[in-house]
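From the shared-data thread, chain only:
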Amino acid sequence: MMHGIITGHPFIDGNKRTGFALARLILQDGGLDIHAGRDEEYDLVIHVATGRMEVEEVHAWMKTRTKPLK
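Structure, as C-alpha coordinates:
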Protein backbone atom coordinates (compact mmCIF):
# COMPACT_ATOMS: atom_id res chain seq x y z
CA MET A 1 0.00 0.00 0.00
CA MET A 2 2.78 2.43 0.94
CA HIS A 3 4.70 1.73 -2.26
CA GLY A 4 1.57 2.24 -4.35
CA ILE A 5 0.73 5.60 -2.81
CA ILE A 6 4.28 6.90 -2.99
CA THR A 7 4.84 5.83 -6.60
CA GLY A 8 1.28 6.34 -7.86
CA HIS A 9 1.00 9.98 -6.72
CA PRO A 10 -2.77 9.98 -6.06
CA PHE A 11 -2.55 13.31 -4.24
CA ILE A 12 -1.24 16.71 -5.30
CA ASP A 13 1.06 16.81 -2.27
CA GLY A 14 1.98 14.59 0.65
CA ASN A 15 2.19 11.22 -1.09
CA LYS A 16 5.33 10.11 0.76
CA ARG A 17 4.00 11.22 4.16
CA THR A 18 0.60 9.67 3.50
CA GLY A 19 2.06 6.39 2.27
CA PHE A 20 4.32 6.01 5.28
CA ALA A 21 1.60 7.05 7.75
CA LEU A 22 -0.83 4.55 6.23
CA ALA A 23 1.76 1.76 6.48
CA ARG A 24 2.22 2.52 10.18
CA LEU A 25 -1.53 2.65 10.81
CA ILE A 26 -2.04 -0.71 9.11
CA LEU A 27 0.76 -2.23 11.18
CA GLN A 28 -0.57 -0.68 14.40
CA ASP A 29 -4.03 -2.05 13.66
CA GLY A 30 -2.38 -5.46 13.64
CA GLY A 31 -0.55 -4.83 16.93
CA LEU A 32 2.81 -3.91 15.38
CA ASP A 33 4.85 -0.76 14.83
CA ILE A 34 7.95 0.36 12.98
CA HIS A 35 11.03 0.87 15.13
CA ALA A 36 13.42 2.96 13.06
CA GLY A 37 15.06 6.33 13.29
CA ARG A 38 13.72 9.30 11.38
CA ASP A 39 16.70 9.17 9.02
CA GLU A 40 15.94 5.53 8.21
CA GLU A 41 12.28 6.34 7.61
CA TYR A 42 13.23 9.28 5.39
CA ASP A 43 15.66 7.15 3.40
CA LEU A 44 12.95 4.50 2.94
CA VAL A 45 10.39 6.84 1.42
CA ILE A 46 12.97 8.62 -0.73
CA HIS A 47 14.26 5.30 -2.08
CA VAL A 48 10.70 4.24 -2.91
CA ALA A 49 9.88 7.60 -4.52
CA THR A 50 13.00 7.55 -6.69
CA GLY A 51 12.50 3.96 -7.84
CA ARG A 52 15.48 2.56 -5.95
CA MET A 53 13.30 0.32 -3.77
CA GLU A 54 10.59 -2.07 -4.94
CA VAL A 55 7.79 -3.73 -2.98
CA GLU A 56 9.89 -6.77 -2.03
CA GLU A 57 12.63 -4.54 -0.65
CA VAL A 58 10.10 -2.49 1.32
CA HIS A 59 8.77 -5.74 2.77
CA ALA A 60 12.27 -6.80 3.82
CA TRP A 61 12.92 -3.36 5.35
CA MET A 62 9.66 -3.49 7.29
CA LYS A 63 10.24 -7.07 8.43
CA THR A 64 13.54 -6.18 10.11
CA ARG A 65 12.14 -3.06 11.80
CA THR A 66 8.66 -4.12 12.87
CA LYS A 67 8.05 -5.04 16.49
CA PRO A 68 4.94 -5.73 18.59
CA LEU A 69 3.29 -2.73 20.22
CA LYS A 70 3.86 -2.54 23.97
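The longest helix spans residues 15-29.
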